[in-house]
Design a protein that fits this description.
Number of domains: 2
Largest sheet: 9 strands, parallel
Strand content: 25-35%
Number of helices: 6
Shape: elongated
Structural class: alpha/beta
Helix content: 10-25%
Order of helices and strands: HHHHHHEEEEEEEEE
Length: about 200
Amino acid sequence: MTAIRGVAMSGEMSRSGGKSPGLRASHEDRDRVVDVLRIAAGDGRLTAEELDERVEAALTAPTMGELGALTTDLPAETAGAAPDVKDVVRIEQKGGSSRRAEAWTVPRRLEIDSEWGDVTLDFTGAVITHDTLHIDLDMRGGALRLLTPPGVVVDTDSLVTHYAKIKARPRRGPDVPVVLRVVVDGRLSLGRVVVRRLRRGRGR
């Protein structure tokens, strides 16, 4: 943290939204910086140790200046204000297909009602601003495909299946910080869930 604490005051102001560095930080200010740090870790800019260290510092930072110092070495587009995130997004379809890819913003909760259709969620270029996505699945026929880069993990333990399959490869490779946990619950009948673990920048 030595290099972080040694940043110039002007840099701290620019990364604290123009607020005075001596201004006391709010819970919302701290949460916003934590979101930025998670995005940076997902981009490979921070190691797991750096992420843990900075998140801990962000959650205890008393002033805007100390918060701003935690993101001063990150690109402006990463350290800028996080995009607005919808609490709930719903996908409803019959016999069709839906896909979320490129720079789509991951909501807090995703409700999927699909009958004889496919839904693909590609997280390799997604904008992730929270640590958990809850997917409420009601699927009859078809497939839910999740394309996950390192740092995105999928939990299907609560999903109720009926004549259905869940296909997911075990996690491999070096440990990376978990930036998003996808929890899939609900019901799946006569269909399948496929989790493909991709290297960043591949599989598009």
